[in-house]
Structures are given as structure tokens and as C-alpha cells.
Design brief:
The structure holds two protein chains of two kinds.
Chain A (H helix, E strand, L loop, with lengths): L6 H10 L3 H10 L3 E5 L14 H7 L9
Chain B lengths: L1 E10 H10 L16 E5 L6 H13 E2 L4 E2 L3 E11 L4 E3 L3 H20 L2 E4 L5 H10 L7 E6 L4 H5 L9 E6 L5 E11 L2
Parallel strand pairs in B: 6-8
Antiparallel strand pairs in B: 1-2, 1-5, 2-9, 3-4, 5-10, 8-9
Helix pairs in contact in B: 3-4
Classes of the chains: A mainly alpha, B alpha+beta.
């Protein structure tokens, strides 16, 4: 893979440019199952590079395993 | 251009159909290891790729829901995979893995930040790879990585490991496949 030097800037720009509805639509295009929006309880966490494990746990138990 | 061999284990009847048509059905399933794609065992982690493809074909013959074999003859198809270097996401390379992790984290963070309730599957890597490709964030057409895959014995005795036992590859464009041929076949015992 050849990586653009602006990869991370473009990545941020991608997410910043999307409305919630657009983001949900794009998630669904990729197979994500979206239950509902806004009225769900999600624990708010300060996110930084070290919080990845905790973050993924909070949004629903991501696992490394494939049956 | 990267060129490498791929081995696809399946039933003999499916293999014959693939060879006759010279095309594979694309698997559309974010729950697969690498998301959507046509799957192959490729050179990398395991020494004997062909053996893994054979073991996969035999393991897949058993339908655990129906409690019976769904086919009795297996086959392994060999292909050449030809992919431009800038369309190959190699998750065994640090830079590729690191960038994918950044995309995965960005997706997850935005899901949390926007308070979107998403039902995850057993693994979300396939969803994130699909997202990265579909949105042009990582414009790959072939992705490969090391995984632990259960074959018949591990499935029968429900043995779980994490350390990889093979390298697999998902190809999104069947035009990147050539020399599609039957490599070996046998009986499921």
C-alpha cells in the first residue's frame, strides 16, 4: 500500500464532514447493524490512544476471535 | 505488482463450477475475517498452504446445524493473484497494520462520540475493512493477514487458540485472479 502523507488529516476530515445520518448510512453500507440512535445509553469517556481497549468494550464487546 | 499463489478449498462440485466459469462468487459478509472478498490461503505464516486449504475444504463439509456432511468430495483450487502494490493492504506490514488500526479507532470513536448503538458481531475487523475500502479511506482491492483458523479437529473438540496458524487473503476483484485450476481433490472421511 502506498500511503498519502496527508492520510491522517484526510481521515479526520472524512469523519468531521459527516452528519450523524450520513455516518450511519455509511456504517450500514459496510455491514454494521445500527440498532437505534441518540436514545441509547453510552458511557462517555475521554478518548485518547490508550483508551482503545476500553472504548471498544463500551460500545459492545469487540472480540479478536472468529468462530 | 505483487504476484503470489492462492489456494481455495471447497467441494469438488463447487470447484468444477468455478473452473468452468473461471469466476468465483464474492463473499459479502462483514463477519468474515477480512470482510467482503474471495478468500484464499496464501504464503506467509504457514509452511504448507495447500494442506491448510485441504483441511479447510474437509472442515467445511460438515454442517454442524444439520449434523451431517454436505459433500463427500473436496477439492483445492490454485490461482495466481496479481495485484498492483498500491492496492494490496498487507496487515503483516507495520505501516499497513498501523494505518488500519487508526481507521478502526476513528470509526469506533465516532460511533461512541455520536452515541450510535451498533450491534457488533463476533469480530468487527471485517466491518471496519469494508468501511475503509467502501469510503475510499484505504483503497485496497486485496487484503491479507495472519489468523488462527479452526479446522475439523479444533471444531470437533471446540479448541480455541489465538496465535495464528495461517495467512489468508481476500480478493475484491476477480480480474486479479488468473490460472484458475484444480490442484488436488479427495474424499471426506
Amino acid at each position: 500500500m502506498k500511503w498519502d502523507k496527508n492520510f491522517h488529516r484526510n481521515l479526520k476530515k472524512h469523519f468531521d464532514s459527516l452528519s450523524d445520518e450520513e455516518f450511519i448510512s455509511k456504517l450500514r453500507e459496510s455491514g454494521f447493524v445500527i440498532d437505534k440512535k441518540k436514545d441509547c445509553k453510552v458511557i462517555s469517556l475521554p478518548l485518547d490512544d490508550n483508551d482503545y481497549e476500553l472504548t471498544t468494550f463500551v460500545i459492545g464487546g469487540f472480540s479478536q476471535q472468529h468462530g | 505488482m505483487a504476484i503470489f499463489k492462492g489456494y481455495h478449498g471447497t467441494s469438488l462440485s463447487a470447484a468444477r463450477s468455478i473452473i468452468t466459469s473461471q469466476t468465483f462468487n464474492l463473499t459479502i459478509d462483514p463477519l468474515e475475517w477480512l470482510g467482503d472478498g474471495i478468500y484464499f490461503f496464501v504464503e506467509g505464516y504457514a509452511a504448507n498452504i495447500l494442506s491448510n486449504a485441504k483441511k479447510w475444504a474437509i472442515a467445511e463439509a460438515w454442517d454442524n446445524r444439520l449434523k451431517r456432511l454436505t459433500y463427500f468430495d473436496w477439492a483445492v483450487i490454485e490461482v495466481d493473484i496479481n495485484v498492483p502494490d498500491d492496492e494490496l493492504l498487507d496487515l503483516n506490514k507495520y505501516i499497513d497494520q498501523s494505518h488500519f488500526n487508526d481507521v478502526r479507532r476513528a470509526i469506533n470513536n465516532d460511533i461512541v462520540k455520536r452515541k450510535i448503538a451498533s450491534t457488533p458481531g463476533k469480530t468487527n475487523d471485517g466491518y471496519c475493512l469494508n468501511y475503509a475500502r467502501n469510503q475510499g479511506i484505504i483503497p485496497f482491492n486485496v487484503v491479507k493477514g495472519d489468523f488462527y483458523i479452526k479446522f475439523a479437529e479444533e471444531r470437533r473438540y471446540n479448541i480455541n487458540y489465538r496465535i495464528p496458524n495461517c495467512t489468508i487473503c481476500a480478493v475484491l476483484k476477480d480480474s486479479y485472479l488468473s490460472n484458475i485450476q484444480l490442484k488436488v481433490k479427495g474424499k471426506v472421511r
